[in-house]
Structure formats: C-alpha cells, structure tokens
Amino acid sequence: MTVLIGIDAQAIAEAEASIAQVGDRYTRRLSTDEEPATCGNGPAALAQGLAGRFATKEAVLKILNVGDVVPAWRSVEIRGTTTGRPEVALGGEAVALARRQGITSLSLSLTRDGGIAAAAVVATVSPLDSDSP
Amino acid sequence: MTDVNALIRGVLEQQGRLPESPTKLRDDEDLYASGLSSHASVNVMLALEDTFDVEFPDSMLRKSTFQSIGSIRDALASLGVVVDPS
Prior knowledge:
The complex is a heterodimer of chains A (133) and B (86). By secondary structure, chain A is α+β, with helices and mostly antiparallel strands. Helices cover 36% and strands 29% of the residues of chain A. Chain A has a three-stranded antiparallel sheet. With 86 residues, chain B is mainly alpha-helical. Chain B is 43% helix and 0% strand. In chain B, α1 (4-15) packs across α3. The longest helix of chain B has 15 residues, at 38-52. Chain B is globular and about 30 Å long. The chains are: A alpha+beta (133), B mainly alpha (86). The interface between A and B is medium-sized, with 19 and 14 residues.
C-alpha cells in the first residue's frame, strides 16, 4: 500500500482577522454550507474551526498535487463524526484529482496550540490500472 | 482613468502580508515567491472584489490568477474592469 501525506498550519489570528474584516463572505468562499455550524459557538470557536479547516484543505490540495487548476476550497469538506474523529469529504474537481491519483481514502488529524491550527492528512493509494488513460 | 495597478498594489499592501512593499515589486514578479501565502491570497481576492466591485468565479480561483500584479490585472480586465492599455 502506498500512502501520501499532506500537512499544513494556519495562524488562528489571521482567520479571526479575516472574519472580523469580511465576515460571511470569507466564510462562504472557504467553507461548505455545513462547515461553519460544526465549528462551535462564538467568534473565537469559528476562527479556530475555520483555521483548522483551511489548514486541512491546503493539506489535501498538497496531496492532490494540483497544478494550476486548483479545486475550490469548498470542494474539500471537513465533517465531524459521532466518534469525534473528523473526516474529509471531496466534491467537484477534487474528486477527479483524487481518482486520477488512485486515492481510495483520506484520514485527518487536527490539532491547535500556540495560536496555530495544524492538519495532517494521510491518503491511501491503490495502484492505478495500467490500462487507465 | 483609474490606475488599476496602483489599486492592486494598495490591496497587496493591506492584505498580502508581504515582507517587502508591493510598490517595489515589478508587475511580472511572482507574488508567491515574494511571500504571498495561500491564506493571504484569499484576503487579497476578497479585497480586490470590494475594491473593483467584481466577484471572482471559482473557475478563476487558480494560483496563476494571483501570481503577479500583471496577472491580477488581466483577471480583473476579464471581469470587465477597465484597465489602462499596457
């Protein structure tokens, strides 16, 4: 089995400043409709949550090895689960990029400390069919 | 006529978090190589939308769109912003 790893970090204060400056528009451009509600209550929780989600999206984009055609941030969604372990769901162009690389699953670990939100994403890859285009 | 490049530099000055003033950057200089982060590019994009009253569609959210002052200028022109002839 082959694995690919993506990692990224985001300063929470930068997300907080962006929310204060442009508010909903910042949230809407970066998040799916469901993501803000999963960040918790209050502006501090929203900034922490969105910073972690932005780091995750960037980590996933590193794994997808995007060139100039970068999928929209909204095409990478972070979902909470009943077990407490967050999951990554892809949509749009991100799905096609993942398929092209033979990615079969994505695992996510999120942390925050010292004003930084960090995400590590591991992708499992199956060998592509040699007859595939 | 509005000096589009000057307005772009103003947005970069306020939102780009660049280590060097954008006034010192050439129009074709690589902004990412000059220190523009992904998150800062989001703020630059939103500030450009406010400044020029446009909205970047998802199809334009490419690294190359925000690669340089010149590429931003070209993107704005494609969204209908009237720019000076180069």
